[in-house]
Design a protein that fits this description.
This protein is mostly helical. It is built from ten helices and no strands. The termini are far apart.
């Protein structure tokens, strides 16, 4: 069962997706803005769990907009992700921030593949901001995820011969890695190995059950969720020492 706040976020997201399908740019942008306002309300009330559903709705609207080549709406969704992420960093909400990083990742990857460089560039900027914030707050999972996401966008942009975008993503990733090392947090070697570990885990997991295709809508019930839920406890215990 979803909470009242989660249900509201879902309904706003579904309405935004419908507006995109109907090519209604004004309404789609309005629902993106409603999600921003709702996210700010949840932040003020310290409802971290409900904020994850806001991230999913923004991600779904953004991805649908990419599919329809609706650049203004896709970029708008990423901009809201970027805007809310800053406050999530300040509050130290690692679980919610991880959801927002996944939203930026998915929209950015889709935009790179659809050759929508402006939207993808916005996603790169959001991911770098999230990554640097994660380093500052010692959020290991989010830091690793954002660097992997930037690498993916850079790779996809390169395949589409979007050299400026590819270089931008690679440079952003390098800045996050360097910031992590300079801060005495996660070493470069561990960050570089992370995508390989994820790939290996997916391969092993797929032997046990069928996985959803990567382009289907994600939910917070993914098998990575357990790792993310444990992250704040690790951080908290580190602070107590």
């Amino acid at each position: 069962m979803f909470s009242i706040n989660e249900q509201k976020a879902i309904e706003l997201g579904e309405s935004g997706e419908k507006a995109v399908r109907e090519q209604n740019e004004y309404d789609a942008l309005q629902y993106v803005e409603y999600l921003r306002e709702f996210g700010e309300e949840l932040l003020s009330a310290d409802f971290e769990t409900d904020l994850k559903r806001v991230a999913i709705s923004l991600r779904n609207i953004g991805n649908k907009a990419v599919q329809k080549n609706f650049g203004s709406v896709a970029s708008g969704a990423v901009e809201v992700v970027d805007s809310l992420a800053g406050s999530l960093v300040e509050k130290g909400y690692s679980n919610a921030l991880w959801s927002f990083s996944k939203a930026a990742q998915e929209i950015g990857k889709g935009a790179a593949q659809a050759e929508m460089p402006e939207t993808a560039e916005n996603a790169v900027k959001a991911l770098e901001k999230i990554g640097r914030g994660a380093v500052e707050k010692r959020m290991e999972v989010v830091t690793l995820w954002t660097t992997m996401s930037l690498e993916e966008i850079g790779y996809l942009a390169g395949k589409k011969q979007l050299e400026d975008l590819s270089n931008s993503a690679k440079d952003a990733r390098e800045r996050v890695i360097q910031f992590s090392e300079d801060s005495g947090f996660i070493p470069r070697e561990q960050i570089v190995k992370y995508p390989q570990l994820i790939s290996q885990t997916l391969s092993e997991f797929s032997d046990l059950q069928n996985l959803q295709p990567a382009n289907e809508e994600f939910t917070e019930e993914e098998f990575f969720e357990e790792e993310a839920e444990e992250e704040p406890e690790t951080e908290a215990s580190g602070k107590e020492k």
